[in-house]
Amino acid sequence: MSRVARRFALLAAIIAVAALSVSCSEAEIDDLLNEVLQEIENSNAGGKVPANAGKALKQLEVAPAGSMSGYDREAFPHWSDAQENGWRVSDSSCDARDAALIRDGKDVVVGEGCDVESGRWLDPYTTRTYTDPLDIDIDHLVPLANAYRSGASAWDEAERERYANDPDNLLSVEDNANQEKGDKGPEAWKPPNRAIWCSYAKDWISVKSDYALTINPQEKSALRQMLSTCKKN
User: Which residues have CB under 8 Å from 135's CB, separation 6+?
Assistant: First the structure.
């Protein structure tokens, strides 16, 4: 067994014990996750895990979640013009939702006015495939409410609109999975499909980095745990 594989086994064992015992403090588990993540980064240069994945996480400001006072989803204008928000679509009538469905689907049929009529969408959260666009929600990877309590409460409307329509923060997923996720961070909800935990964590960190959003301590630990599932090509 390789050194990294041994550390994965040790990590799994200690987390399992910690879940049933108070003998291992949260700080000690956090230190272990840091150590294993560093091993992964060191051993996977050139593989699936970018060398800066852990560094980007460490650079995020850690702070308690802010207040939801004053939050209004409509204060984040969404499903705005796709082309104006960085989407690569040829039809100027497409909004961000249309563009996400087109990007994420296969054999997508688009009617007049960029109306997405049919196609095939593989939901990354559940691995189920759907053919009716009405079964698909466009998920904000880092939810709007999560962003609000992580720093977006201080943004103006233009910045909130950019965020709500950003291609890097939108993903086509099954509607029930999206509703189950709600506005939860990875400390409270992870995709049922464990195979995407690595990419989900990296994308979450990327969005929070791009918009200078904070993370809470539990969120940081959960992201470290998810990054520890990344494997070499």
Answer: 121, 174, 175
List, as own/partner pairs, every contact residues 104-113 make where C-beta atoms lie below 8 angstroms and the sequence separation is at least 24, other chains included.
104/171, 104/172, 105/133, 105/172
Higher per-residue confidence, 71 vs 1 = 71
> What radius of gyration, in Å, describes the C-alpha atoms of the chain?
19
- Measured CA to CA, the distance from residue 33 to residue 79 in angstroms comes to 38
Furthest CA-CA distance within the chain: 63
Per the listing, tokens 């996977």 go with 44
User: E-strand spans in 53-148?
Assistant: 106-110, 116-122, 129-130, 136-140
What is the reported pTM?
0.79
End-to-end CA distance of the chain: 17
pLDDT > 70: percent of the chain: 77
CA-wise closest residue to 33 among 194, 221, 232, 203: 221
DSSP letter at 149 equals: T
DSSP string, 157-189: HHHHHHHHT-GGGEEEEEHHHHHHHTT--TTT-
Three-state SS for 109? strand
Q: What tokens does 40 get?
A: 């992964």
Q: How much of the chain is in helix, strand and coil states, percent to nearest 5?
A: 50, 10, 35
Residue 183, φ and ψ in degrees, nearest 5: -105, 20
Instruction: Using DSSP, state whether 18 is helix, strand or coil.
Output: helix
Assess contact for 31 and 221: CB atoms under 8 A: no
* Residue 232 CA to its chain's centroid (Å): 21
